[in-house]
């Protein structure tokens, strides 16, 4: 599976953020800059209270990475249970999806409308063409039958999406879908998978998981 040009995408992502910040500083309240500013009012931090147990780890995902962002929490849970002979109630895994891993937290309709596969250079192995649905949602590497939904409901994994990435990536995707940045952001927010928590930013979520939630840190790629 081809991967996105990380350097090019990162420059585009950071450039969009910088452009929005510059516009705010000089008072150019365009719709795009207003959207970038909107994450200053953060979504709820209620997910932090769900972090329980003695063994806690946060996984920091920044790229599609062939879907392994969904596998790492299960690796942690299963290996910890096996090695230490503990139970599910003793373990919490938090998976933060920020930067260009964020779209993995979106449903199929959003992937199709906003050409997410093309943007991320993620191909559907069944067609060898840019994915028109979230091919990672129910295809977690190493764990046949597991989905992002079962991570939450069956294994207690806390999935956290980055609102800053949502804002920037939806704005980048808006022109190709023929909609405004404001409409794209609304669609992306509505398109989050059930049970996914939205944090002010991914880096904020990683910090809060460690400091308030007592998690150790693991880079997910």
Polypeptide structure, described:
With 221 residues, the protein is α/β, with parallel strands linked by helices. It has a single domain, classed as Hypothetical Protein Ychn, Chain: A (3-Layer(aba) Sandwich). The chain is built from nine helices and seven strands, in the order H-H-E-H-E-H-H-E-E-H-E-H-H-E-H-E. The chain has a five-stranded parallel beta sheet with strand order 6-5-2-1-7, with helices on both faces. The protein has a two-stranded antiparallel sheet with strand order 3-4. Strand 1 (55-61), helix 3 and strand 2 form a beta-alpha-beta unit. Helix 1 (6-25) packs across helix 2 (31-37) and helix 7 (163-177) crosses helix 8 (181-190). The chain is globular, with a radius of gyration of 17 Å.
Give the helices and strands, then pairings.
Blueprint: H1 6-25, H2 31-37, E1 55-61, H3 71-84, E2 91-97, H4 108-113, H5 116-120, E3 123-124, E4 129-130, H6 148-153, E5 158-162, H7 163-177, H8 181-190, E6 197-199, H9 202-211, E7 216-219
Please tell me the CATH architecture by its name: 3-Layer(aba) Sandwich
- Tally of domains: 1
CATH topology: Hypothetical Protein Ychn, Chain: A
Would you count the extended β strands for me?
Answer: 7
User: If strands are numbered along the chain, what order do they take across the biggest sheet?
Assistant: 6-5-2-1-7
Distance between the terminal alpha carbons, to the nearest Å? 16 Å
Mean pLDDT: 87
Number of helices: 9
Secondary structure class reads alpha/beta
CATH class: Alpha Beta
State the order of secondary-structure elements, H for helix, E for strand.
Answer: HHEHEHHEEHEHHEHE
Q: What share of residues are in beta strands?
A: 5-15%
Morphology call: globular
